[in-house]
Amino acid sequence: MAGIESVLPTEYGYVVLVVVMYCFLNFWMGFQVAKARKKYKVFYPTLYASESENKDAKLFNCVQRGHQNSLEMMPMFFILVILGGMKHPCVCAGLGLFYIITRYFYFTGYASGDPQKRLTVGKYGFLA
């Protein structure tokens, strides 16, 4: 029976590193949402704040939405990087790293309170 090292390319570790980096990015985003919950007084289990109940609803919702969008994209990103990396690990890892960087800017732009700022750098992630 062949071992995993005979199935995966030697550079596949870069793919694994990129997947782990995306997990850390999402973990950090989750902390930003927790800080925003405290700052804007939006308590669990409320997912989105209502403007009729909270004057800072838009600010909180922008932070929440930036994180949630990254969670929504995570399965597709993982599948494409993990499977593509089996044939082209360096290309997939490089594009994955580029995507992670743009996701950071997507989130910070969104979390600023102006949803259009998410597209300043974040829009380029979809090229990856």
State the CATH topology: Four Helix Bundle (Hemerythrin (Met), subunit A)
Number of strands: 0
Overall CATH architecture:
Up-down Bundle
* Terminal Cα span: 36 Å
Low-confidence stretches: none
Cα radius of gyration in angstroms: 17 Å
Query: What's the shape?
Result: elongated
Mean pLDDT: 90
Number of helices: 5
What is the CATH C level class, in words?
Mainly Alpha
**Major β-sheet annotation:** none
- Report the sheet-strand fraction: under 5%
- SSE-based structural type: mainly alpha
SSE order: HHHHH
What is the total number of structural domains? 1
Helix content: 55-70%
Pathway: Lipid metabolism; arachidonate metabolism; Lipid metabolism; leukotriene C4 biosynthesis
Transmembrane segments: 12-31, 77-101
Membrane topology: Multi-pass membrane protein
Pfam family, one: MAPEG
List the helices and strands and how they pair.
Layout lengths: L3 H4 L4 H29 L16 H28 L4 H23 L7 H4 L6
Helix pairs in contact: 2-3, 2-4, 3-4
EC number: 4.4.1.20
GO biological process, one term: leukotriene metabolic process
Keywords: Lipid metabolism, Lipoprotein, Lyase, Membrane, Mitochondrion, Mitochondrion outer membrane, Oxidoreductase, Palmitate, Transferase, Transmembrane, Transmembrane helix
